[in-house]
Specification:
Chain lengths: 210, 210
DNA sequence: ATAATTCTGTTGCCATAGCAACCGATTTTG
DNA sequence: CAAAATCGGTTGCTATGGCAACAGAATTAT
């Protein structure tokens, strides 16, 4: 239970209050094997959840059967929380890319919810909304090189420090709306041009962006 | 005051309750001339608002000074409501593309907010979130023709019926992440191919999409 | 009414990046 | 451990669509 106190949803709440909300929200921990689908695009859901461990991806499938990665979720992040208060169906399919543990919540009765919890919820929604806007910003950059650079710069914690991205090349290409081979090619070029260095999913930006 | 009862934020609330919340939320109607900036990208804001009349656009400016249209808002829609509960700065600049009337709200004290109001708020947020996902879906379609078609199909209310888009060509191109002339060219071709017909910002989809 | 500005369509040029195909490296599975 | 599958890089081909420039239409301003 102690791990719950670290969750953003319960930030600033006493263990007792958390305990109570866990009952109200019908919290339920489950194990989710790699490859499982937690939420399916186009379907309504009344539950949301928090990823306790593992790695999720939000994906869309286009009419040609192509898979497009929209989001990645790492431990501690929440999902579906916007959905449950709206009449809209899920915009993405949520898939476990590794084995996961998930805390399911809901259905949620707003009138019985702690006001601090709602505040936390809105905060979380704000962050997610922001992340979507980031993705849109990347999308709208025409030049692949600039797009890659924009993304990597945002991931960089401090200048010149190596950092990792939550994708393999395929996922990264998909997230950045690019072809995998085109991404590989451009990364090679950027390495050649001394802009960055990388190995697998670890990157390091070297000098000024051009 | 009566126009307030039609707003999604106050849905299902009594005139008296609305009146009260208007005080709590410090509602304030203002006129906003065309071209004004309501929220500036990168800045924090403590107020949100509802567009009573006119037309707004959410825009991002990329590093090359290019303008990218992210959203359009028409009368009745809310803006900034996600922002005020999060510590993130505004992801877009909100600009009045026509003269507008705006109802400003905030700062908001969650603990004094009507629970129905919060429910409405979450609902509105859900819709906006969904709209963003739509835009992302369009972005991730590589073929310009298919991208246009996806967008127009979503706007079409019923088959074969004409409908309008809330953009001029420039805005539409920007929203669809395309070059204006490329969009014009592709629209011409699609008209030639009998896929659609249009005049200015009114469109009509004719036969099956290919 | 006339001028000025904005909007839309058109066209030529051509670089970017998508696609396919291949290969070696790495990881997973049995 | 071997076999299979996934992953990442490379390369050639080429269509798409970005860019620039122009012109006529439409809208707005004076």
């Amino acid at each position: 239970m102690t791990e719950l106190t670290n969750l953003a949803l319960f930030a600033g709440m006493s263990p007792a209050a958390i305990e109570e909300q866990m009952t109200v929200l019908r919290g339920q921990k489950t194990s989710v094997p790699k490859g499982s689908v937690l939420i399916r695009e186009g379907e309504r859901t009344e539950r949301c959840g928090i990823l306790l461990s593992g790695h999720l991806q939000g994906q869309q499938i286009d009419e040609d059967g192509g898979l497009s990665v929209i989001t990645t979720l790492s431990a501690g992040m929440m999902f579906g929380e916007i959905l449950i208060f709206s009449d809209r169906p899920a915009p993405v399919t949520l898939t476990a890319v590794t084995d996961c543990r998930v805390l399911w919540l809901g259905p949620v009765d707003l009138s019985r919810a702690d006001s601090r919890l709602i505040q936390n919820l809105l905060n979380i929604i704000g962050k997610e909304y922001w992340a979507l806007h980031q993705k849109i910003r990347y999308c709208s950059i025409v030049s692949l090189r600039k797009r890659i650079l924009a993304y990597l710069s945002d991931r960089e914690k401090s200048p010149n420090e190596p950092f990792s991205v939550p994708f393999d090349r395929n996922g990264m290409a998909s997230y950045l709306n690019a072809d995998r081979s085109a991404l590989s090619r451009e990364l090679s070029r950027m390495k050649r041009d001394g802009i960055l260095d990388y190995h697998k999913n670890r990157f390091r930006l070297t000098e000024k962006k051009l």
